C-alpha cells in the first residue's frame, strides 16, 4: 500500500480529525477475533491502528479470541472441538489448552505485535486482579463443562492501565468465586467490558464482511427487532450468535451502537472509527 492509496494511514488521517476529537479521551473496546488474526500483514495493520488510536488520545481496550488457534492445538493432541450455540464444550483438559493458547500464546503474540508497532501493551486474563468473575453457563440439553458466563467485571486494573498510556489486551478467561477456571466466549467478554467501561464504541472484528442475509449480501444496519427475526429464521447462526447477543446486551445497557466489522480489510479499525466509510454491520437500538 502506498501513501497515496485511498486507504493509506495518511489519507485516512485527513478525514479523521473530527472523529479524533469526538472520541478523544474515550474508551473504544475492540474485539479481535481468532479468525481475523491469521494473516501476518493484517496483524501488523491491526497493531498499527491500535497504536495510532492511543497516540491520538483515544483509549483502545483489546479483547481477543483465538478459537481456531485453540482448535489447532486440540487437534494436535487428538481432541475434536465440539460447539453448541457457538460455545466450545470445554472439559477439564480442554480448559488447560484454552488457558495455554489464549492466556499464553495468543495474548503474548498480540502484546508483542502492538509493542513492535510502537505501543505499550499489557496482556492480562480475566483472572488477573480478579477482573472477570464467572460462573458455569447452564444449557438445557448439554453440559458445557467449563464454559463460563460473566457475573461481574472489576475493570479497575483496565482503567489504571489506560490512564497510564498502556493498552490493555485481555484474554477471555474468567474465574469462579471458588477459583474454578472458565472459558468465556470473547464476544461476550467484549460486550460486558464495553458496558462496564461505558465505552463509546464496541467493534467486533471477524472474518466476514459483517452480518450477511440469506443471499450472502451485507446488512449494513440492524435493529434489535431485525436480529430476533434473523435468528428465528436461521440466517444468523454459530459464531455470529454470541456477537449479536453481546451487541444487543451492550445496547440495552446504554451503548449507542456495536459494530461487527471485517477484520480482513486492512485498517478496518481506523476505517470504521475515523472515516465516514463503514466496514461492516452496525447494530443500533
Ligand atoms: N448471517 C451471518 N452472517 C455472517 N456470518 C455468519 C452468519 N451466520 C453465521 N455466521 C458465521 O459466523 C462466523 C463468525 O463467527 P466466529 O467464527 O466465531 O468468528 P470470530 O473468530 O471472529 O469470533 C462467520 O465466519 C460465519 O461462518
Ligand atoms: C466458550 C467459548 O466458545 N470460548 C471460546 C474462546 C475463544 C473465542 O471466543 O475465540 P474467537 O473470538 O476467535 O471465536 C473458544 O473456546 O473458542
Automatic annotation (TrEMBL):
Pathway terms, separated by semicolons: Amino-acid biosynthesis; L-arginine biosynthesis; N(2)-acetyl-L-ornithine from L-glutamate: step 2/4
Subcellular location field: Cytoplasm
SUPFAM superfamilies: Carbamate kinase-like (SSF53633)
Record-listed E.C. numbers: 2.7.2.8
CDD domains in alphabetical order: AAK_NAGK-C
Superkingdom assignment: Bacteria
Name of the molecule in the record: Acetylglutamate kinase
Naturally occurring in which organism (per UniProt): Thiothrix subterranea
Gene behind the chain: argB
